[in-house]
Write a structure and sequence with these properties.
Layout: H1 5-14, H2 21-42, H3 73-78, E1 83-84, E2 87-88
Antiparallel strand pairs: 1-2
Helix pairs in contact: 1-2
Amino acid sequence: MEITPELVKHVAQTARLNLKEEELKKYAAEMQEILNTFEKLSEVDTTGVEPSFHPIPIKNITRKDEPNDCLPREKILELTKHKTNEHFKGPKVL
């Protein structure tokens, strides 16, 4: 497949992007280079190679949720001037 400036222009218009003529040529060349690289990859003989989703084993590295003590409400409200009674006061949105 050949990536032409006209194809890039069509895609840009679909995405509502305004590109100059030199940008169309530049992006067409860059996209063509990317496409050529993928075509080279498709030529690699992968006979006998099992597909893998992750080249290295990945484990869940997140920590377990554990309840922690939090600051008392009174202490937190002492630290702000934006409060009403026992609540934080934020700006009006609508």
